[in-house]
């Protein structure tokens, strides 16, 4: 490794050595991640962290940083190490009970916001509650229900609702999709499992090893969850109600075909920032 200019035990020295280790472990953005971890360990923001690279790091902070760095070098996701992740305009708690919210999923929110303001919103496979809470934050007159198979995920989503000031406008419950619910929703959201079972071991270890398999595995062709959700949408949606479903890359035509077979109208798709068709918009006829 290249020698670091700042003293060992200083902010700059620790960041330099940590960045080298993260780079060697094939971690993207190693310098940024080292800064985020050290800032978290020291309880300071990035501006304060970088103000004096030669400043010593207190022993307690150095110990905390070392523990977090070892976790990241083992490819544990940053979100799980920090315990939080930004999504839309919200900062959300995350845990191994759920997928970590991704910027790609904001395409679902953008697509949902392009339609009429909903009154009752349902989020199937809610995870952290990110989709539902983002939509509710933009529609102050709406009320939402989030459902997840994992009780831990439903509890986490409820904590996020409280932390974002939305607790009085939503409820979360553990269950199998919408089996326990009657209809009457203006808008249904979902980011279902859509990875083909055989493809999961080939994903980056942050996902394949650390994120919950039940939230990833979409069955042999990746469409198992879509079949269940789409078949239930005619019962769940009000007349002219809409559904916005997150898509895996290239899945748009197949999921649209399932929707048409169920009697739904396909309104179109919405791309993520990478130009990938990420959200499919459907309507009750």
Give the secondary structure arrangement, pairings included:
Elements: H1 11-24, H2 30-42, H3 46-49, H4 59-73, H5 78-82, E1 84-87, E2 90-93, H6 106-113, E3 120-124, H7 130-138, E4 143-148, H8 151-163, E5 170-174, E6 185-190, H9 205-208, H10 224-236, E7 237-246, H11 252-261, E8 264-271, E9 277-284
Parallel strand pairs: 3-4, 3-6, 4-5, 6-7
Antiparallel strand pairs: 1-2, 7-9, 8-9
Helix pairs in contact: 1-2, 2-4, 6-7
The end-to-end distance, rounded to whole angstroms, is: 63 Å
User: What's the shape?
Assistant: elongated
Give the helix level as a range of percent: 25-40%
CATH topology of the largest domain: Rossmann fold
Q: Trace the largest sheet across and list its strands.
A: 5-4-3-6-7-9-8
Write down the domain tally: 2
Number of helices: 11
Q: What pattern of helices and strands is seen along the backbone?
A: HHHHHEEHEHEHEEHHEHEE
Mean pLDDT: 95
Pfam families: MTS, PrmC_N
Keywords: Methyltransferase, S-adenosyl-L-methionine, Transferase
Family: Belongs to the protein N5-glutamine methyltransferase family. PrmC subfamily.
EC number: 2.1.1.297
Describe the structure.
By secondary structure, the protein is an alpha/beta fold. It folds into two domains: 11-74; 86-284, Rossmann fold (3-Layer(aba) Sandwich), CATH 3.40.50.150. It is built from eleven helices and nine strands. It has helices at 11-24, 30-42, 46-49, 59-73, 78-82, 106-113, 130-138, 151-163, 205-208, 224-236, 252-261, and strands at 84-87, 90-93, 120-124, 143-148, 170-174, 185-190, 237-246, 264-271, 277-284. The strands form two sheets. It has a seven-stranded mixed beta sheet, sandwiched between helices. Strands 1-2 form a two-stranded antiparallel sheet. Helix 1 packs across helix 2, helix 2 packs antiparallel against helix 4 and helix 6 runs parallel beside helix 7. The longest helix is centred in the first third of the chain and has 15 residues, at 59-73. The protein is elongated, with a radius of gyration of 21 Å. The chain starts with 10 loop residues before the first helix and ends with a strand. The mean pLDDT is 95. Belongs to the protein N5-glutamine methyltransferase family. PrmC subfamily. Its EC number is 2.1.1.297. Substrate binds at residues 191-194. GO terms for molecular function: peptide chain release factor N(5)-glutamine methyltransferase activity. Residues 17-83 form the Release factor glutamine methyltransferase N-terminal domain.
């Amino acid at each position: 490794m290249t020698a670091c200019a700042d003293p060992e035990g200083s902010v700059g020295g620790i960041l330099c050595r940590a960045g080298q280790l993260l780079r060697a472990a094939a971690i993207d953005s190693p310098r940024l991640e080292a800064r985020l971890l050290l800032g978290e360990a020291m309880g300071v923001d990035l501006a304060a962290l970088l103000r004096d690279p030669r400043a010593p790091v207190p022993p307690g902070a150095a110990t905390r940083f070392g523990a977090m760095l070892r976790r990241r070098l083992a490819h544990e996701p940053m979100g799980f190490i920090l315990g939080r992740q930004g999504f839309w305009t919200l900062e959300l708690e995350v845990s191994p009970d759920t997928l970590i919210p991704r910027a790609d999923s904001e395409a679902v929110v953008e697509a949902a916001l392009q339609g009429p303001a909903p009154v009752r919103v349902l989020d199937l496979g809610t995870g952290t509650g990110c989709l539902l809470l983002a939509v509710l934050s933009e529609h102050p007159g709406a009320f939402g229900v989030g459902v997840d198979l994992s009780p831990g995920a439903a509890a986490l989503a409820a904590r996020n609702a409280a932390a974002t000031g939305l607790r009085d406008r939503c409820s979360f419950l553990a269950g199998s999709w919408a089996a326990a619910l009657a209809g009457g929703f203006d808008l249904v959201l979902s980011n279902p499992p859509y990875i083909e079972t055989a493809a999961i071991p080939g994903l980056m270890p942050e996902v394949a090893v650390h994120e919950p398999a039940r939230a990833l595995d979409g069955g042999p062709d990746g469409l198992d969850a879509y079949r269940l959700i789409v078949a239930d949408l005619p019962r769940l949606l009000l007349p002219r109600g809409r559904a916005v479903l997150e898509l895996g890359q290239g899945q748009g035509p197949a999921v649209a075909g399932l929707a048409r077979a169920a009697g739904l109208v396909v309104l179109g798709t919405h791309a993520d920032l990478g130009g990938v068709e990420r959200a499919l918009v459907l309507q009750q006829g």
